Amino acid sequence: MLNYFLALILGAFFGFSLNKAGLTRYSKIVNVFRFTDMAVLKFMMTALVVSMAGLYTLRGLGLITFPNVPATYVVGNLVGGLIFGVGMALVGL
Amino acid sequence: MSNLVQGVRKELWSPYAAGILLGVVGVLAVWLSDSLLGASGAFENLAGMIGKALAPQVFNVMYFNFIMPAGITWGVILLLGIILGGGLGALSSRTFKLRWNTDDAQWKAIFGPQLWKRWLLVFLGAIVLEYGAGIAGGCTSGLAISGGMLLAPAAFLFIAAMFMSGILTAFVVYRRRY
């Protein structure tokens, strides 16, 4: 139950950050693929760097263990990504 | 203090500031809930749930039993939170508005203002996108960001492929306006 409550709160902050970065708009998403507005990339990479640094520090301190790491199956990851990109650039979701 | 409140209420933050917020949320999700953020998986959980109610035999497969279990999962609640948080974000900048069509001028310039075009294209595009996410094992948040922060190779393969086809698709849609 607590875990579900946490999911709701974490999700709310997640959605809040997406809204504030403007990623709820078609033009923001598609323009990163046209190299005219790099907000998506700035947002994604900042989040990546912050969470990478945080997680590896916390693991180094012995405070957390990593959950299941997403599986790597090269062809599937690539083919899925190629299909995904078409949908993303077409409708900006 | 009022400067801070004003800053939070702005319609668009610097993407770096918003990214830092998401990064912190990503760390907290692992620390507090032992889970990874993700959005596309929740739709599969829900689709599995609906499928199992309508055609239990068809949906009694490994994918909906083990890989993407049907039902109300942590990810589904997270998705509810995302919708809630997105709404709160819009409310905080007083730009919240219920609408059937998009207000995006760029969309209207490219595809036209018709409501049916928007709905049809978004519906088809979302099918393509969700299908791709299902094959790859996640979407921009669930695989690219959540996987990337654990340094999973899958995440970086996915990001590369996503940008490759995304850039090509945008080029085909925009042609000379690219």
Key words describing this protein structure:
heterodimer; A: 93 residues; mainly alpha; globular; B: 178 residues
Q: How would you briefly describe this protein structure?
A:
The complex is a heterodimer of chains A (about 90) and B (about 180). Chain A has about 90 residues and is mostly helical.
- Number of DSSP-assigned strands of chain A: 0
Low-confidence stretches of chain A: none
SSE-based structural type of chain B = mainly alpha
Reading the helices and strands of chain B in chain order gives HHHHHHHHH
Q: Mean pLDDT score of chain B, rounded?
A: 93
Order of helices and strands of chain A: HHHH
What would you say this structure looks like, in words?
The complex is a heterodimer of chains A (93) and B (178). In chain A, helix 2 packs across helix 4. Chain A is 73% helix and 0% strand. Chain A has 4 helices and no strands. With 178 residues, chain B is an all-alpha fold. Helix content of chain B is 71%, strand content 0%. The model of chain B has no long low-confidence stretch (mean pLDDT 93). Classes of the chains: A mainly alpha (93), B mainly alpha (178). Chains A and B meet through helix 1, helix 2, helix 3 and helix 4 of A and helix 2, helix 5, helix 6, helix 7 and helix 8 of B.
